[in-house]
Design a protein that fits this description.
With 472 residues, this protein is mostly helical. The protein is built from 18 helices and no strands.
């Protein structure tokens, strides 16, 4: 039995769906549905809307759930190694994104840039990395959202996962990335309002003492950056997370799609502002974990630390705006994912088919096929989210390592550093098909040497081999 009735839960979901559907409709009235509009919003997204969209797209499930979980289990150390790399990543990416946009003012995808400069087979690897990433990312959003709503309402997980999968699909299918960015804007505003209202309520009910005690985590062993525990957190969480996060936007079409949707000179400042806005969320939500740890509250499922904090320290009515906040963060990323897949298929894949068969797809046909691709990622992500025993943290770390496989080649390509085509191809092969399995095996079996070795191999192999291997 949940804290609220299942009927109230369904009403909440329907209300949220109507909310985002109306926003999507309001910003699309009278707009002509072209490929340019559907995939890159006519390239005229402004700096402020772009920054809020970037921030909430970067939030997704990890920022909403892992920050508070790490605060509870590993105190300030865990929060530090999650939050700081997140912020720095968006700032760094903004610099490189601006450079690429200058090189490709009419670009659509980064994978397309790779095809132009290398080969179809290298392009295939970037498509595999991107499609794999989007499917796993979608699964994480659905897993997180359905878990917290099931705990709250008592509704079966599978029904909630289906509902949460369909919602972002239905409000983005007609207007593509434009719907995603404009709903992002208002969803991020809502998240900030909930945090700035909710955290003072929590601290007023707990006092500051539990917060300060909880900085060391539930065990009390994670408050010292020079301790043995600090080194363990750095090795087992800090390194793979930092690698995964730094790789994040570089290997992710969700962010490249925003790069090509923004006005040309707004790219870098939008990402810097987005980074600063983002930081408010994990820092704010980590306070819930600190307070629970400081109060010595025992939590059975630490993935839901943030919800437990609201249940213990906030008035019952605050559950509803809090759940709206969670839905905003999760579904804003879910809709970005389906839009990213639509751009990869609607431009890159169709261009390959056009060139091979010497045909030209109409604007209507292009958008139709892009919409069909949205269905595929929704279906596959939903299946993964319903695998028994699947964990948010494991999926987050796995797709983080997947993104890292193309980080260095992406930076080299943008900077104009000469790479071998064969080296690039085989380097990414080694990173994805050797580095990632080693990391995954280590994580599933708790073997630190495999975790670190797999993460480092996935990051470095593609970068080193692409430079050292010489084309004949």
């Amino acid at each position: 039995m949940g804290m609220v009735s299942s009927t109230s839960g369904w009403i909440l979901l329907i209300a949220y769906f109507v909310f985002v559907l109306l926003i999507s409709y309001a910003y699309s009235v009278g707009k002509r549905k072209t490929k340019l509009y559907f995939l890159v919003s006519n390239r005229n997204v402004g700096q402020h809307a772009g920054a809020l969209s970037i921030a909430i797209t970067w939030i997704w499930a990890p920022a909403l759930f892992i920050a508070s979980e790490k605060a509870y289990t590993q105190g300030i150390l865990g929060v530090f190694w999650f939050t700081v790399p997140n912020i720095l990543t968006l700032v760094l990416f903004g610099y490189f994104a601006q450079k690429l946009r200058a090189k490709m003012p009419e670009g659509w995808t980064f994978a397309g840039f790779i095809q132009q400069n290398f080969s179809k087979r290298v392009h295939n690897l970037f498509l595999i990395e991107n499609f794999g990433l989007q499917i796993l990312s979608f699964a994480v959003q659905i897993l997180a959202g359905a878990s917290i709503l099931s705990r709250l309402t008592g509704i079966d997980f599978i029904y909630l996962s289906i509902a949460l999968s369909l919602m972002p699909f239905f409000y983005t299918i007609w207007n593509g990335i434009r719907s995603s960015i404009m709903t992002d804007f208002w969803q991020m505003i809502w998240i900030l309002v909930v945090i700035f209202v909710g955290i003072p309520i929590v601290l007023n009910n707990t006092g500051l003492e539990p917060l300060t005690i909880g900085l060391s985590g539930i065990s009390g062993n994670f408050g010292d950056f020079l301790s043995k525990e600090s080194l363990d957190v750095f090795l087992t969480f800090g390194i793979p997370v930092t690698i995964g996060l730094l790789s994040g936007p570089f290997g992710d079409q969700m962010f490249w799609q925003r790069v090509f949707s923004l006005k040309g000179n707004h790219v870098k400042p939008a990402f810097i502002k987005g980074a600063l806005i983002f930081g408010i969320v994990p820092i704010g939500l980590s306070i819930l974990g600190f307070c629970l740890a400081g109060k010595s509250v025992q939590i059975q499922d630490t993935q839901l630390t943030n919800l437990e904090g609201i249940i213990h320290f906030a008035p019952k009515w605050f559950i509803f705006p809090f759940v709206f906040m969670i839905l905003s963060g999760l579904l804003s990323t879910a809709d970005s994912i389906v839009c990213a897949v639509s751009s990869l298929v609607g431009h890159d894949v169709l261009k390959r088919i056009e060139n091979k068969k010497n045909i030209k797809f109409s604007e209507k046909k292009t958008i139709t096929i892009a919409r069909i691709s949205m269905i595929s990622v929704v279906f596959l992500g939903l299946l993964i989210a319903n695998i028994p025993g699947i964990k948010i943290l494991y999926l987050f770390l796995v797709y983080g390592i997947l993104r890292s496989s193309v980080l260095l080649p992406t930076i080299y390509a943008i900077k104009g550093i000469k790479m071998s085509e064969k080296g690039l191809f085989w380097g990414i092969i080694v990173s994805i098909f050797i580095g990632l399995p080693i990391f995954t095996y280590g994580k599933l079996n708790g073997i630190n040497s495999y975790i670190i070795g797999g993460a480092v191999l996935a990051l470095l192999a593609s970068g080193i081999i692409s430079l050292l291997y010489k084309d004949k």
